[in-house]
Automatic annotation (TrEMBL):
Region entry Disordered, spans: 307-329
Protein keywords: Oxidoreductase
Name of the protein described by the UniProt record: Oxidoreductase
Pfam families: adh_short
Record-stated family: Belongs to the short-chain dehydrogenases/reductases (SDR) family.
Length: 329
C-alpha cells in the first residue's frame, strides 16, 4: 500500500490537539516508549488505559503520569500478551460495552537468548509482538467498532526490513536466532497492519504502523555485549534517542487528523534513528496481497480466533485474497 500522508517537517507533540473525547489503550504503557506515548496522550486530555502484565509496574506508571498531569484520566488493564486466555479475559469487559478510539499495539520483547515459548506454545518473540497483538486487536474489535473513527497503531521497527525477517518458519521451529525472531515479529506487525487496512476498507476505522527509531529502554535488557554497545553509541549520537523522542512516530500516527490507512511512519532524521515523523517507504517484497492473506490465515489458525474486522468481509473473500491463500486450518 502506498503512503500518501504528507511528510510533516515541523510536526511535534506540541501540535497534538485536545483529545478529551478519545479513549486510548496502549500496550506496554508502563515502560519506555509506551509510557512516553501515554504521557503525551494523557496530557492532551485522552482517557488512557495502560495495558501491561504486572499490576505493580502499571500502578507505578499511573503515579508517574499523575504527577506529570494532575487529574489525568488513567486506568490500567492487566494483560499478558503471551497468553491467549489472559488477552480474552482482559478484553471481554471492554468488548462488552466500552468504546476504544485508539489502540496502540506497542508492547514488545527483543533478543530473547534461547527459544522460549508463550503460554500457548508460540515462540515468545513472535508470540508476544505479533500473535498477542493480533489476538488483542481481534478481541477488542467490538469496542473499536463503537468509535466514530477508531485507529489501530502498531509499533514495528526498522528490523522489519531485514532479510532475516521473512515470515516462513514464523515460529522459528526449524532454527531459532534471537534477532531473526525479532525481525519476523516486526515484519509481521507491518504485514498485519497492511492486511488489516485492506480488510477495513470502506469502514471509518484505520490501521497504521510506525517505527520509533532508536531509544534506550528496557527492550535492550537481553542485549549484552556488542549489540548493546552499538545501540548505546548510536543513541548518544542522536538528538532524540530518548524514549520521549521515540514516541513521536506513535503520537503522530495516532493523532494527525487524516492518515493513509495501511501506511508506515518513522523518524525522518539521519538513518531514521530519530526526528520528525514521516511516511517510510517499504521494501518491494513486503506486504503483497499473498503475504498479508497468508499471515492473516496463519495467525487465525494459530490463535484459533476468526478475525473478520469488516462486517461484510469474509476472511476468504476473493477480493482481498486472489486465490493465493494457504489455508492451513
Ligand atoms: N527502543 C527502541 O530502540 C526500539 C526500536 C525499534 C522498535 N521498538 C519497539 O518499540 C516498542 C516499545 O519498546 P520499548 O523500547 O519501549 O521497550 P520497553 O521499555 O521494554 O517496553 C516494552 C513493553 O512491552 C511490555 N511487554 C513485554 N512483554 C509483554 C507481555 N507478554 N504482555 C504485556 N506486555 C508485555 C513490557 O512490559 P514489562 O515492563 O512487564 O516487561 C513493556 O511495558 C516495542 O514494540 C519495540 O519492538 C523499540
Amino acid at each position: 500500500m502506498v503512503n500518501r500522508s504528507p511528510a510533516s517537517p515541523h510536526w511535534s507533540p506540541e501540535q497534538v490537539g485536545d483529545l478529551s473525547d478519545q479513549v486510548a489503550l496502549i500496550t506496554g504503557g508502563n515502560s519506555g516508549i509506551g509510557l512516553e506515548t501515554a504521557r503525551v496522550l494523557a496530557r492532551h486530555g485522552a482517557h488512557v488505559l495502560l495495558a501491561g502484565r504486572r499490576p505493580d509496574t502499571l500502578d507505578h506508571a499511573v503515579a508517574e503520569l499523575r504527577a506529570d498531569t494532575p487529574g489525568a484520566r488513567l486506568d490500567t488493564l492487566v494483560v499478558d500478551l503471551g497468553s491467549l486466555a489472559s488477552i480474552a479475559e482482559a478484553s471481554a469487559p471492554l468488548a462488552a460495552g466500552r468504546t476504544i478510539d485508539l489502540l496502540i499495539n506497542n508492547a514488545g520483547v527483543m533478543n530473547i537468548p534461547d527459544r522460549r515459548t508463550t503460554a500457548d506454545g508460540f515462540e515468545l518473540t513472535v508470540g508476544t509482538n505479533h500473535l498477542g497483538h493480533f489476538a488483542l486487536t481481534a478481541e477488542l474489535m467490538p469496542a473499536l467498532r463503537r468509535a466514530r473513527a477508531a485507529r489501530v497503531v502498531t509499533v514495528s521497527a526498522q528490523a522489519a526490513t531485514w532479510r532475516s525477517g521473512q515470515l516462513d518458519d514464523l515460529l522459528s521451529e526449524q532454527r531459532y536466532r534471537a534477532m531473526h525472531a525479532y525481525a519476523k515479529s516486526k515484519r509481521a506487525n507491518i504485514v498485519f497492519t497492511q492486511e488489516l487496512a485492506r480488510r477495513l476498507s470502506g469502514m471509518s476505522m484505520t490501521a497504521v504502523a510506525v517505527h520509533p527509531g532508536v531509544a534506550m529502554t528496557n527492550l535492550q535488557r537481553h542485549s549484552a555485549g556488542l549489540l548493546s554497545r552499538a545501540v548505546i553509541a548510536m543513541t548518544r549520537r542522536t538528538l532524540m534517542g530518548s524514549p520521549a523522542g521515540a514516541a513521536w512516530p506513535s503520537l503522530y500516527a495516532a493523532t494527525i487528523p487524516d492518515i493513509t490507512s495501511g501506511g508506515f511512519f518513522g523518524p525522518a532524521g539521519r538513518d531514521q534513528t530519530s526526528g520528525t515523523p514521516k511516511p517510510v517507504k517499504l521494501p518491494r517484497d513486503m506486504g503483497s496481497l499473498a503475504e498479508g492473506a497468508w499471515l492473516w490465515a496463519e495467525s487465525e489458525r494459530l490463535t484459533g480466533i476468526r478475525f473478520e474486522p469488516h462486517p461484510t468481509c469474509r476472511a476468504d473473500d476473493r477480493r482481498l485474497n486472489p486465490g493465493k491463500t494457504t489455508d492451513r486450518s
